[in-house]
Amino acid sequence: MQCFRGNFEHALDDKGRVAIPARFREVLSALQEPHLVVTRPIPEAGRAWLDCYPENIWRQLEKKLVNGGSRLDPTWRRVRRVLVENAFECTPDAQGRISIPTKLRDYASLQRDLVFTGEIDMFRLWGKEMWERSASDDEEFVIENPGLIRNLGI
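The chain above was modelled as a monomer; its predicted structure follows.
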C-alpha cells in the first residue's frame, strides 16, 4: 500500500508556491493522482494547518459529507461548510510545486518555512513553528497516556 509518512521541510516561495516532497510525489504518482485538494481541516484549538488530499480520497470524503447527515441538521451543515467552502484543487506544476491560495496561507499562518507531514492516506502542510509546537504537544500527550497505544492494539 502506498502511503504518506514522515515529515519534510520545504520553503514557500514569494509567489505562494511550495514543492511537494519527492517522497509524496512518488506516492501521488503511484496512486495515479495528478490533482490534490487542499482545504482547512475541522479546527482544533490553538492549531492551524492545511489538509492535502489526493483527489480520489477527497471524493470519498465528499460522499461521506453528502450521505452522512441531513442537509437540515445545522451541525452537519457547518462541518460540510468548513471543509468544502475552503477546498481548492491544486495541480502540481512540472517542478512538483503547488500554489497555495492566499486564503489558505492566511488561515494556517504559512510563512516561508513549512513542514509536510504524512497522514497515511493524505498529508498535512504546517507552518514550521506551529508544527514544532503541535508535535511536541502530541508527543507529550502520548507519553502521558500510555493506555492509548495499548487500546489501539499496537
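The chain has a mean pLDDT of 91.
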